[in-house]
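Technical note accompanying the year-one report. For the benefit of new consortium partners, we illustrate the data format agreed upon in the data management plan: each record pairs a sequence with a structure-token string. No post-processing was applied to the example shown here.
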Amino acid sequence: MADLKKTKILIIGAGGIGERHLRCFQATGRADVSFCEPNDDRRQMLMKTYDCIGYADLDDAFRLHAFEAAVICTPASTHIPIAHNCAEHGLHVLIEKPLSTSLKGVTELPKAFLAAQRIARVAYVYRSILAIQKGRELVSSGLVGPIRHVTVTSGQHFPSCRPDFKEIYYAKRSSGGGAIQDALTHPVNAMEWTIGPVSEVACFAGRQVLDGVDVEDTANLIFLS
């Protein structure tokens, strides 16, 4: 491992998700990881905790250091322009979900990465779950026959797993918050990957539990493939 060339990775946005990426990439022993975080207190804390370089400004990071790949962990409303910036600097990119809060700039993004000859992916990690992979194999093989109905139930206990939900992107729909734009996109992506694209959608949603936010925390989604 001492002779292994380490990939130079920049984590853009070092909130809770960004810190997880930072920690996990470091744990592989295969990555030279830096991060970009405008919050001074958090940046100083993470630099001390992980003994790595932290930048306050993305332009400074690109000016001072050459990276091979980036992970975009900022609010979803900023993903598209930051991804374009990364493509212009010749970086491969992993973009946290959801890709965006609107369709603006989405169709142009693949073209930018094709032109730069770099790879961009969105972090829909449910595709790595072995049970979902097996389900996809069974559907593709025709062994189980046509799929007529799928039920997915999921949830998070926010006070323990996301105690800062009132202060982060989740609190506002404009930055990608709410059950529909956030966690719900994981099972939707997994099911489309497994059984095919969606043709019709119906959704019932509301704020049932969480105080201090203006977004829905509960959603019931029905779609036809």
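Partners are asked to follow this layout when depositing records. Residues 16-28 form the longest helix (13 residues).
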